[in-house]
Amino acid sequence: MKPDYQKVLAAISEGDVVSLLQDLVRIPSVYSPDEPGRNEERVADYVAAFLRNMGVEVHVEEVAPGRPNVIGIVRGTRPGPCLLLEAHSDVVTPGNPAGWTHAPFGAEIVGRRLYGRGACDTKNGITSAVMAVKGVLESGVDFPGSIMLAIPVDEEGMMLGIKHFIEQGWADSVDAALICEPEDNRICVAQKGAMRVLVHVKGKQAHGCMPFAGVNPNTRMAKFILEVAAYEQQEVQRLGRHPYLGVPSLTPTVVKAPAEGEGQLNVLPADCLVAYDIRTVSGQNHEQIYKDLQGIARRLEDADPEKARIELEWIEDRPVTATALEEPIVQAVAAAYRLLTGREPVYDGVPGATDGTFLSAWKNIPVVVTGSGVREVPHQYDEWVDIDQLLETTRLYALAILEFLNGAGAAHY
């Protein structure tokens, strides 16, 4: 291993890495409109102060009230490419605290696991990105180009933070991006696309003992759901299994009747609402999928003697992304992984979308998604991250920075 790389690794301390992650997990950053103190602002303030103490140029930009993005910039000694490391500051709700064995925001360590909401998604990503850059700076090694850190809000929502980051021009100078998400340190070079579609069936309210005086929206929605399930299987058969992304899915995740207010056992509701979480792979066209869903709705309407209306609304669109194995960022991360572990990396895909989706789709930036954490653990009770893997990720990011700026990325600059 090169002496400069050894210097950087020597500058990364387990105690400092774990301490930072504990501090971040202990700051709740669940976006709660009715509880401003629980949104991303406190974490953003902490990270911004931490970066300033490292000597990093820091910019804080409010995306919405109490929801600031943090951007950090470290400039090298000569011109070169710009590498972005990105990890979001928001976390999902812990749910019922009684479901947790460990306090959701306690950052408790048991054995070699650190527990808490965000420990795996993605306070660990923030920690590894920040501490990797700190290791580079404290080692005093020379590098060209620049390192950019982005800690945006709302990745768990509508991804307002990364969209604002792009709209403000920050992505214009970025040559490649490393998205810090829990992927067991696999090198993920593809991400599933995502569509969010609302389906609204309008019936006629009636007394539960006289249902035929009304028009039942629930039975009609059930027919729609079954038709979409059959369509899903057709798409799976048509496309087969993607090598990195698996199979597509169209999942009804929310079913609500009536669409507004509370239902009652003896009241046939006037309407029914279903929210679909649709995940796509290469070879699918989102516009065509929406047209196909509309076609299912029209067929059911035409076959309905009472002509109950079925209305669709497409509320979010996130395209499939793919990064070629030949891209400098992929080569840099792979080389760093080999140097660090002595093993060949595992290439994979992300089953969901990340902030990297919009960097790729809107700005054509090559992205790699990798980081510590078992991908099935986020959003569960007793979320955790393995401390040894957290340290491996921090060192991986540090070496990937140097590999990209000095090697693979510089050659294409």
In short:
The chain has helices at residues 3-10, 14-25, 41-53, 123-139, 160-167, 217-239, 286-303, 328-341, 356-363, 387-411; strands at 57-64, 67-75, 82-86, 109-110, 113-115, 146-151, 176-180, 187-191, 193-202, 206-207, 249-256, 267-268, 271-280, 309-318, 321-322, 347-350, 367-370, 384-386.
How would you explain this protein's 3D organization?
This protein has 413 residues and is an alpha+beta fold. The chain has 2 domains: 3-191 and 320-411, Aminopeptidase (3-Layer(aba) Sandwich); 193-318, Alpha-Beta Plaits, CATH 3.30.70.360. Helices cover 35% and strands 24% of the residues. It has helices spanning 3-10, 14-25, 41-53, 123-139, 160-167, 217-239, 286-303, 328-341, 356-363, 387-411, and strands at residues 57-64, 67-75, 82-86, 109-110, 113-115, 146-151, 176-180, 187-191, 193-202, 206-207, 249-256, 267-268, 271-280, 309-318, 321-322, 347-350, 367-370, 384-386. A 6-stranded mixed β-sheet has the order 1-2-6-3-7-17, sandwiched between helices. The protein has a 4-stranded antiparallel β-sheet with strand order 11-13-9-14. A hairpin with a 2-residue loop joins strand 4 and strand 5. The protein starts with a helix and ends with a helix.
